[in-house]
Amino acid sequence: MDVKAAVAFEAGKPLTIETVQLENPQAGEVLVEIKATGICHTDAFTLSGADPEGLFPAILGHEGAGVVVEVGPGVTSVKPGDHVIPLYTPECRNCEYCLSFKTNLCQAIRGTQGRGLMPNGTSRFSIAGKMIHHYMGTSTFANYTVLPEIAVAKIREDAPFDKVCYIGCGVTTGIGAVLYTAKVEPGANVVVFGLGGIGLNVIQGARMVGANMIVGVDLNPQKRVLAEKLGMTHFVNPKEVEGDLVAHLVELTKGGADYSFECIGNVNVMRQALECCHKGWGVSIIIGVAGAGQEISTRPFQLVTGRVWKGSAFGGARGRTDVPKIVDWYMDGKINIDDLITNVVPVEQINEAFDLMHKGEAIRTVVTF
Ligand code: NAD
Ligand code: AHE
Ligand code: ZN
């Protein structure tokens, strides 16, 4: 079938709206009509050329919601008409990783996913016979996409697509990092670096679990109002701190953060996030994605003296199990998504949506088809 997609032909170039040919779903795959998709900083990261796994041409996008239109042979867990959220972290419930219950990083299809292909090693997308890569196994910047069955979470039908698409990455990543990765306890002091689409969800996760101090750190003072609405108790702008930022944060939290979260992708900030943690027990969670070739460093003494460095992908959430619950939290008014979706644009304006992100003028822009 012909579908409408925003195609990334080359790193660093704007996306172009194209008519793309999409093949039928094969065994174990489903065809989904994407109704809405958010734009995450990771899409911009890959488009910039900084992603070691970035492939071109590709259809980017990994924060979508839509409806199953057709299923391939052997698909049993969803049927046409089901509402779903695509999962860039699938949940096969059968691989060593899923069965370990120690991680959400299902590896059943990770190899082909990283090569921009469906699990059988081919792409369903092409233009005039030339192959177009899938991206993160999801490719939600298209009005129809094909996904492996294990990479869709079935959700309730009354949930609005243009809001719950954000649960496909940002909401789950931020709230999940607090609940599932860090397991922040009531009364903890939390420091969040970067108050964008991810960091604001870390803040609302910290508020949900009853954290004590929730300190937000961002260079952009315009992020303050929304962060406070979501639960931030203290705002720190590094540009306004006299002297060392880490020392300032340790003093503010009376000894250091019990938990810190890096939600930017800046390796220097990752070090600050670790080092502002409390001696003896502070845990720092890296969420931000850093570019090819970048590395983190600290004095090993920081770890010897009890600080812990961890990372979190998709908030540690098991997609098919946890995403429908997070949709319920939104529908029950337990989490705020509406205020974080600052812009909604038709797919024809998708490049303007990337510009808004780069200028720091949007938290999340949702693209509709
Ligand atoms: P965003 O652009 O919406 O937010 C980034 C925020 O960081 C902005 O508010 C910006 O002002 C602030 N910032 C930038 N440099 C700063 C600095 N030096 N000090 C303090 N604040 C600074 O991005 P986002 O969509 O929230 O994504 C954040 C990061 O998380 C990206 O690296 C993205 O790729 C990554 N990410 C990771 C996962 C995961 O599963 N690990 C999932 C989604 C996104
Ligand atoms: N491809 C990059 C890494 C990108 C990355 O870390 N992706 C996160 C999700 S970001 C969503 O916005 C993730 O889930 N990582 C786990 C995984 O298996 O990809 C690189 O550096 O090669
Ligand atoms: Zn994302």
From TrEMBL:
**InterPro entries from the entry?**
ADH-like_C, ADH-like_N, ADH_3, ADH_Zn_CS, ER, GroES-like_sf, NAD(P)-bd_dom_sf
Q: Which first-to-last residue range defines the signal peptide?
A: none
Q: What is the E.C. number?
A: 1.1.1.284
Keywords assigned by UniProt? Metal-binding, NAD, Oxidoreductase, Zinc
Chain ranges of the Enoyl reductase (ER) domain? 12-367
Identify the cofactor(s): Zn(2+)
Report the top EC class in one word: oxidoreductase
Q: Which reaction does it catalyse?
A: a primary alcohol + NAD(+) = an aldehyde + NADH + H(+); S-(hydroxymethyl)glutathione + NADP(+) = S-formylglutathione + NADPH + H(+); S-(hydroxymethyl)glutathione + NAD(+) = S-formylglutathione + NADH + H(+); S-nitrosoglutathione + NADH + H(+) = S-(hydroxysulfenamide)glutathione + NAD(+)
Enumerate the Pfam families for this protein.
ADH_N, ADH_zinc_N
Q: Kindly give the SMART domains that the UniProt entry links to this protein.
A: PKS_ER
What PROSITE patterns does UniProt report for this protein, alphabetically? ADH_ZINC
Functional note: Has high formaldehyde dehydrogenase activity in the presence of glutathione and catalyzes the oxidation of normal alcohols in a reaction that is not GSH-dependent. In addition, hemithiolacetals other than those formed from GSH, including omega-thiol fatty acids, also are substrates. Also acts as a S-nitroso-glutathione reductase by catalyzing the NADH-dependent reduction of S-nitrosoglutathione.
Q: What family is reported?
A: Belongs to the zinc-containing alcohol dehydrogenase family. Class-III subfamily.
Q: What is this protein called?
A: S-(hydroxymethyl)glutathione dehydrogenase
Organism the protein comes from: Trichocoleus desertorum GB2-A4
